[in-house]
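stuck on whats below:

***
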Amino acid sequence: MTTGTASWLPLSPGERSVAIEVLVHGPLSRTDLARRLDLSAGSVTRLTKPLIESGLLVEVADGGVAGETRQGRPSQPLDVVAQSRSFIGFKITADAVYGVVTTLRSDIVARHDRPLTTREPAEVVAVLGEMTDELARAHPSLAGIGIGVGGRVEGRTTVGESPFLGWRNVPLAALVEGRTGLPVVLENDVAALVEAETWFGAGRGLDRYVVLTIGAGFGYGLVLSGRRVPTVEEDGGFGRHWIIDPGGPLTPEGERGSAVSLLTIPSIRYQVQAATGREHTYEEILALAAAGEPMPARVVDEAARALGTLIAQIANAVMPQKVVLAGEGVGLMDVGGAAVEASVRAHRHPLAAPVTLETKVSDFHDWARGAAVLAIQVLVLGSAES
């Protein structure tokens, strides 16, 4: 396999800014680029020329398709050829690997999932390699791989610690690179999702917003000045100590009344089972709560009010333009949305601006897409924070 990215790298800071602006907001004319980036017309011409020569950008006819060029039209829009390169994104969970292939603009063009029969690193790498081989047969222009895992990731190369997988200090990027021959970027899955939303999703064009993820775990991402704020404790279990209600439930995975104890799927299932003596799936609990079954309704209502309190706390401190809810647990909003909104209002100043709340109904392929976006950022543009 060949990556095909060498002719695009390295980009100077100016070239990188132009390429990102066109990738995220294009097609854009040179005049638009000059205005957006506060550059002179001559600087835009100087910066775009090597990007066009390398094939990363092309001139397009007004309203046309990338690749349709006409000479001598400085005002012609510039665009990327989204289909010129493909990227694989993998999301690894405790029991499966979810894979997608995306274009340069992160549009998903293929999905491929495989169950995990073991979490041994060598076996997981073998599964990733087999999936890559299969995807490469249909998508020969693969430029790289992004992998997202729940847990602490070091240097975009190593899983420092992942409670979901039971891993410590696993050099996953190097292992997968050795198996596939493709460059690999590894990242915490919440961080990858935030990057994808910032460039191509709910956060595009926003200066300041927050992503909250609820599901098997709890995740938090903050974007300031249009850039994700990386932290050393990213998905390192801090949600277990983010106390929302000191008198709230105590569960095996979190401190009493923490975000993890109140909001995650395992904790909600644990609370219902402890109270009723019966196991239920998360979807069953939500359905029972919607039907008025007392104990599931109580647990779901408590989770909804806790989520509203948390959103209000974040809004009071950060004053975001938007709060994005994502993850496999966002079905909570379908049943408890009114309680969430009431709790937000109760914990905000009466004159405070309303919190713009966006719920993204997502599955693990969206997490995999986030990992692919990291690969686009790092391998093609060299732009994301290390």
Remarks:
- The chain is about 40% helix and 20% strand.
